[in-house]
Amino acid sequence: MKKILFALYNLLLIIILPLFFVWMSCLYFLKDKKAAGLFNKLFPSLNKGVNEPDFENGVWIHTVSLGELKASANFIDLIIKKTNKPVYLSAVVKTGYDYAKSLYGKDRSRIYIFYFPYDFYFSVKIILNLIKPSLFVCVETEIWPNLFNMLKKRKIPISIINARISNKSYKNYSVLGFFFKYVFESLDLVLCISGGYYEKFLKLGVKRENLHITGNMKFDLSLRNFAEEIDEKAENLKNTFKDGKVIVAGSTHKGEEKLILDAFVKLNKKNGKIFLFIAPRHPERFEYVYNLVADYNLQCYRLSSIYSSNYELIPPFNESLKKASPVDAGIVVLVDIIGELITIYSICDVAFIGGSMVQAGGHNLLEPLFFGKPVIFGKYVENFSEIAGRIIEIKAGKRVGSPAELFNALLYYLYDEKAIKDAKESGLNLISQNKGSSLKNLEYIAGLLKK
Q1: Which CATH number characterizes residue 55's domain?
Q2: Using CA atoms, how far apart are residues 367 and 347, in angstroms rounded to an integer?
C-alpha cells in the first residue's frame, strides 16, 4: 500500500509540474519573492569552487525562513564545534537564505548554503546525490513525503528539532492519515517544544521512543554572532532618539500598521515626544507602509537612510503629499533592512509584535524580552500560544484585542515605572530559566550520528 500511495503522490506531482513551472516562472520574472531560487529548487546545483572541501557525510540542517534560522544559530554553532562535521544549510524563503549568506557566507569551509529543493522526485534525488548527508535535521516542522521517503531508503536518519505543529496542519495531516502515517513513521527523532506538540506527533504516527520534549530553541537566541554590530548601531540610534520614548512595531502585516499609527498619533499629542519604528514582515510592503505614514502627514524616515547619513535626521519630503511634513509632526522610522529588527528591539521602550492583530499566527514574542523590553500582542498568536500565556502570567507583556486596548497597553508600558520594571525582570527571568534547548537537542542528535 505504501508503494502505491507514493506512486500516486508522484503521479500527481508530475501532472501539476507543467502548470506549476509556468506559474512560478512568471512569478520569477516578475521578481516575486515566492519564486526566489526557482531553478535551484527544481534543479539543485551547488556551484562549488575548485578549492572547496568535500562536504560528503555532513549534516543537512533545514530552516524555512529567517525566524527558524535565528532560532537554530546556537544549535548550528554547537553542531560544528561538538561533532566536527561540515553543515549543509538550506532555506525556502529568500529572507532566510539572504540572512544565512550574511551570517555564514564567509565560512565556506564549514557551512554551505543553498535553497531547499521542491519535493519533486527528480529534485530530491539530485540534491541527495550532490551532498550525501549523514543526517537530516529540520528546524520546526516541514513535512516532505518524497524527501523523507528517499532519506529512509538511503538509511539517512531524519530528525525534527524545535518541533511544533499548528492546529490547521494537524487536522490536514489527520484527514490524510492513510498516506502521512507512512511519512511520520519514517521519522527517527522528533524533539518537541512542549507536551501538547508531543501528543500531536504521537497521534500522527511518530513512534513514542523517537519522541522527546526539549523546549524551545528560540530562548537560546545567539546574540554573540552579531553582538558587536548591535552594540555599535544601538548606541548611535540611542543618541539620535534620546529625546523621547521609542515604540517598535515588529513584523507587521497589512491592517496592523494603521492600528499602531492611530495609537501613535494619539499618544504623541498627549504625552510628549515619542518615536515609532515600523518593521513590515514582508519587504515588498515597504513602499506601501512608507506611503501610509505619509498619509498621516508624519515625518517618515527610512532606516537605511539614517544609516547612510551617519545617523542624522534630515527632514524627509513626503512625495505622496507633495509637501514637507510639519517639523513638529510625529517621527516614524520605516525599518527597511532585513535582519535589523533585533537591533531596534534593543533600544525600544516597548514592542508590539505583529501578525497577532490579524490572523497570521503571530511572530516571535521573545526577542524583545532578551533586552528586558515589555511586549504587546494581539489574540492571534497560535504559533506562540504557550509562550504568550506565560508572558501574560508573569506580566512581561499584555495581550490586546482592540485599538483601545492597544493604546492603553502602550501608555501603560511607556509611563508606568513599576510596570516597566516588573516586565523587565520577569522577561529576563523567563529567558534565563528556559535556555538550554539547543544543547539538549544536540545530545539527542549526537546519538543519531553514532548509529
Answers
A1: 3.40.50.11720
A2: 12
Q: What is the pLDDT of residues 161-188, one digit of tens each?
A: 999 998 889 999 999 999 999 999 999 9
Cell triple for residue 371? 533586552
Range of the domain at 137: 47-213
How would you classify the pairing of strands 331-334 and 350-353?
unpaired
- Per residue in 84-132, pLDDT tens? 888 999 999 888 898 888 888 776 668 889 999 999 999 999 999 999 9
CA–CA distance from 107 to each of 25, 76, 94, 101, 113 (Å)? 32, 13, 20, 9, 10
Residue 32 lies in a domain: no
User: Does 208 share its domain with 233?
Assistant: no
* Euclidean distance between CA atoms 283 and 4, whole angstroms: 42
Domain check: are 183 and 134 in the same one?
yes
| Long-range contacts at 411-419 (CB < 8 A, ≥ 24 apart) | 411/267, 411/271, 413/349, 413/350, 413/374, 413/376, 414/245, 414/247, 414/267, 414/271, 414/274, 414/349, 414/350, 415/271, 419/374, 419/395
Among residues 213, 237, 260, the one where a domain terminates is 213
Q: What is the DSSP letter of 118?
A: P
204 and 100 in a common domain: yes
Q: Which residues contact 274 (CB under 8 A, 6 or more apart)?
A: 244, 245, 246, 247, 264, 267, 268, 330, 414
Judge whether residue 315 has pLDDT over 80. no
29, amino acid identity: F
Backbone torsions φ then ψ of 326, nearest 5 degrees: -60, 145
Domain assignment present for 208: yes
DSSP string, 407-419: HHHHHHHHH-HHH
pLDDT at site 47: 66
The average pLDDT across 382-397 equals: 94
Residues near 413 by beta carbon (within 8 Å), at least 6 away in sequence:
349, 350, 374, 376, 398, 419, 420, 423
Strands (E), 283-328: 299-302, 317-318, 323-324
The pLDDT of residue 224 is 57
Q: Among 297, 304, 334, 337, which Cα is nearest to 318's?
A: 297
Residue with grid cell 504568550, as numbered in its chain: 388
Which of 186, 213, 240 is the last residue before a domain boundary?
Answer: 213
Question: Taking Cα atoms as reference points, which of 229, 183, 225 lies closest to residue 344?
Answer: 229
